[in-house]
Automatic annotation (TrEMBL):
Mg(2+) binds at D66, D68, D117. It is an enzyme of class 2 (transferase). The gene is cca. One of its GO terms (biological process) is RNA repair. InterPro entries: CAA_C, CCA-adding_arc, CCA_tRNA_nucleotrans_2, NT_2-5OAS_ClassI-CCAase, NT_sf, NuclTrfase_I-like_C, Polymerase_NTP_transf_dom, tRNA_NucTransf2. Keywords: ATP-binding, Magnesium, Metal-binding, Nucleotide-binding, Nucleotidyltransferase, RNA repair, RNA-binding, Transferase, tRNA processing. CTP binds at S54, R57, H140, K160, Y169. This is CCA-adding enzyme.
Length: 476
């Protein structure tokens, strides 16, 4: 434990904001709050403003520069007026800002070097009565602010730095990691960062925490943390099983061999074409890539559709005998995951990013890429009279010269018939590949796809080099 404490002490020096940074943020937030109140005063309705998120609670990692201000309107105000007045306030406070969208539009901009979100919401009495998903955020802030002391807040920062270092931080639907709110609740529930990792190393999912003991439903997620402000919601619903397992793996590693490196994000360098070919030569498998224009949607819409499409293609490949060893969806930019800070706003916001992907790829590594011209098709045992007779009769008059049988092999009828697709390229370029379950907005783009097989995938390296390195050099 002495070695662990020494490591954590050095990490704290790096990740906890200095007093000067805290003061500058406090002054900037106060100025923006005053400007927001002035803009509200010009409205024909009443509202107030509250600062929320990690910078409001003192739980941000040094260098993060986000200020989230929520403008709360009366719960009776209709959605159209809330949007209108909320944007009026946002543009008044951030005249150079731009509009983004959660469940309704809000204004995002910068001020004195800080990234600022100005979000309208309804002032509901309880989080369970929310009208829009963002309405619950002020309740999150109030709950945590009343319970996090300085020591726990510092441990939250350690936990966030650790999750960033292992690549499991961010509640966007690309990352499927730990949100800021989830991280804070876990540190609060377990009593600190060290108790959290000590607990996590022995978890056997599903794991459930209910801080207020008020859950009103059951959940089937690998980690369940019942929202203390809303008994119907699992705060960890976005968290993937893989990222939960990743957290457990590195929790064990930190406790067994403490290292500051675990708190340092590792951004892999892109693979170049030569390196891709070297991996292919060493592995002896055959890669395939289906490449198409990425739908023009934000990441939180894009990635669920890409994963659905990948599942469909992998299922089709396996069904046709092209055994998939491993597969993943890719885009030609790092996208929002690189900038994810998982604030409370980001739990519900579909964020636009400046480096939006233009191309997407469904990438798979295959054990088999070519099959015999014929395939075996077994019927029922001859003794099963009705079904056996039906099978036999359906083939006995088949005049196709490429069909063998029906004949008896063992106790059943068998035919050997022409395989629909003998090569993986034939399948991926066919209409059958489009018939699998694809994301709704992927489907039209999929019609104009490029299919790459074997060493041709190396041509993807200039645009997809980083996800290719993550694919061929995976880490826990």
């Amino acid at each position: 434990m002495d070695e662990l404490e020494a490591v954590l002490s050095r990490v704290r020096e790096r990740v906890l904001p200095e007093p000067e940074e805290r003061e500058r943020l406090r002054e900037t937030a106060a100025t923006l709050t005053d400007r927001t109140r002035e803009a509200i005063a010009d409205l024909p309705v009443e509202a107030d403003v509250v600062q929320v998120g990690s910078t409001a609670r003192g739980t941000w990692v040094a260098g993060d520069r986000d200020i989230d201000l929520f403008v709360r309107f009366d719960a009776d105000l209709d959605r159209a007026e809330l949007e209108e007045y909320g944007l009026d306030v946002g543009h008044a406070v951030l005249p150079d800002g731009h509009e983004e969208f959660a469940e309704h539009p809000y204004v995002k901009g910068s001020y004195e070097g800080f990234d600022v979100d100005l979000v309208p919401c309804h002032d509901v009495e309880r989080a369970a009565e929310l009208i829009s998903a963002v309405d619950r955020t002020p309740f999150h802030d109030a709950y945590l602010s009343a319970r996090l002391d300085n020591d726990l807040a510092g441990d939250v920062v350690l936990a966030k730095a650790f999750l960033k270092g292992i690549g499991a931080y961010g509640s966007d639907l690309r990352t499927e990691g730990f949100s800021g709110y989830l991280t804070e609740l876990l540190v609060l529930e377990l009593g600190g960062f060290v108790p959290l990792v000590e607990s996590a190393r022995s978890w056997h999912p599903p794991v459930e925490f209910d801080p207020e003991g008020h859950a009103e439903r059951t959940f089937e997620d690998p980690l369940v943390v019942v929202d203390p402000t809303d008994p119907t919601r699992n705060v960890a619903a976005v968290l993937s099983a893989a990222n939960l397992a990743r957290f457990q793996h590195y929790a064990r590693e930190l406790l067994a061999a403490p290292s500051e490196a675990l708190f340092d994000p590792d951004e892999p360098e892109p693979l170049d074409s030569k390196e891709v070919r070297a991996h292919l030569d060493r592995r002896g498998t055959t890669p395939v890539a289906v490449v198409f224009d990425a739908p023009d949607v934000v990441d939180d819409q894009l990635w669920p559709q890409l994963r659905r499409s990948l599942d469909g293609i992998v299922g089709g490949l396996n069904d046709h005998g092209f055994d998939v060893l491993r597969a993943r969806a890719m885009t030609d930019t790092a996208g929002a995951a690189d900038a994810a800070v998982a604030s409370d706003v980001e739990e519900t916001a579909e964020r636009d990013v400046s480096d939006e992907p233009t191309r997407a790829a469904l990438y798979a590594e295959l054990e088999v890429t070519e099959r015999p011209t014929v395939e075996r098709h077994e019927g029922p045992p001859v003794a099963v009279r009705k079904h056996a007779a039906s099978f036999y009769e359906s083939y006995v008059d088949d005049v196709d010269p490429d069909t063998y049988g029906p004949f008896i092999d063992g106790d059943r009828y068998v035919v050997e018939r022409e395989r629909e697709f003998a090569t993986v390229r034939e399948y991926l370029e066919s209409d059958a590949a489009s018939d699998v379950a694809l994301g709704a907005q992927v489907e039209p783009a999929f019609d104009d796809r490029d299919v790459l097989v074997g060493e041709a995938v190396a041509t993807l390296a200039p645009a997809f080099g980083r996800p290719l390195r993550e694919f061929y050099e995976p880490r826990p």
